[in-house]
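The passage that follows is intended for readers who have already worked through the single-chain material. We present the inputs for a multi-component assembly, then the predicted structure in tokenized form, and finally a short commentary. You are encouraged to pause after the input and sketch how you expect the pieces to fit together before reading on.
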Amino acid sequence: MTMQSPMDVLARSATTTPSASVRQSVEVAKLIDESKCIGCKACQVACSQWNELSDDIGSTVGVYDNPSNLSDESWTLMRFAEVETQGALEWLIRKDGCMHCTDPGCLKACPAPGAIVQYSNGIVDFNQENCIGCGNCVTGCPFDIPRISKKDNKAYKCTLCSDRVSVGLEPACVKTCPTGAITFGKKDDMVAYGNRRSDELKDRGYKNAGLYNPSGVGGTHVMYVLKHADTPEKYSGLPSNPSVSPLVSLWKGAAKPLAVAAMVGAVVAGFFHYMKVGPIAEKEEDKA
Amino acid sequence: METSSKDLPRYDDATRMNHWAIALLFFAAGLSGLAFFHPSLYFLTHLFGGGPWTRILHPYFGVLMFLCFIGIYIKLWRDNLLNKVDKQWLGQAGEMFAGRKENMPAVGKYNAGQKLVFWSMTISLLVLLLTGLLFWHAWFPALPVLARRIGVVLHALSAVVLVLTVIVHIYAAIWVKGTTRAMTRGTVSRGWAQANHPLWYRDVTGGK
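Having made your guess, compare it with the prediction:
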């Protein structure tokens, strides 16, 4: 869902001309401080409530994750990992969901004009009206986030509450978080705050604490403060160096317009060959 | 089109109808696929009832095309095995392009260019089918993302190969006069056969 102004569009899927971008907004970001998270799932509830989503009741899979995975109706999910660090058990809890990449693989992969839009504030939003349900966003995403609905074959994911943000409110998960683990604001401020929090954690003995704002995707507009920023994989497989797959870049890169040119060129070349060389005629006398 | 009782049969009705079924499905699958190939071609979705319908239909067109191709493959693959003369023919292909057909070595039912078209279509269709299944979300939504990524790249690549091959195929039929009737009527003139496929002419006429 999008209620953003259509005049602050940074990038639009399957569109080769510039989008309306006369209005520039401040780059925003959500910062999730893993060290402050108690795993209460209030963010999941707030997300469902604000977005009026009611996922089917699933079944337990033996861990605290509930539901067991993201879905078209569950756009954020606490993932619980039990990790042994130097003989001690650690319970690492990560709020999973769309990272709102600066270089979004979903948008790059999408073939439907305007089905995925990136606003100048950094939010990457799906526009279900234009979605054709092909699943290419799933192919392009380095974080395994988009889900295709089985009911309507449209792709869904966290909108970073673009509707709330556009009217000056923070996302629903941020508003509800009881421990202040989720904060929202200007991207610059959030980076500064995240670095400060990482330093505090280092002072407390977490020497590998750091801000997760991966440069492989140009940075993200959802960032984490991690106690173990050197091994983000510990947090239920958060990739340490995510980037848009080279296969996706090859598939959607310069090769495509060149291939279109080759196909059109082959027809044009055939036309001129015919005009220059002429047909290989069937001799009249042979016909009889 | 002038026909004569002395014309030589080249394709029976079953082969011809098989060919045209593939041709129609090629345009259906090709145009619906190109719609997603590049934004400049997205307008092609209008031919199929919009984006979602194009996405729904494209794989079925493709699978049907592949199934139809199996029929013509079984009928023609032996005639398309490459031999020594084909190597020579390819070495002199420049003469052919320059329109000096008379300088080309004598060939049987198919010349080396036609054979390469056949194998290019066979291989690209096989790759299109196998890779297309990897990201046919409606039926196979749970495949690993790496499989999908490899699938989309090879699918797009083999689609370009197939389109270029079909362009060559259609152009050759327009260029060499007297050829299209082999598929529209099933027969060719004796003169056409002698000029373009002398060894085949000898085989089917017994040299007469």
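Commentary: The two ends of chain A are 71 Å apart (CA to CA). Residues 245-277 of chain A form one domain. How closely did your sketch match?
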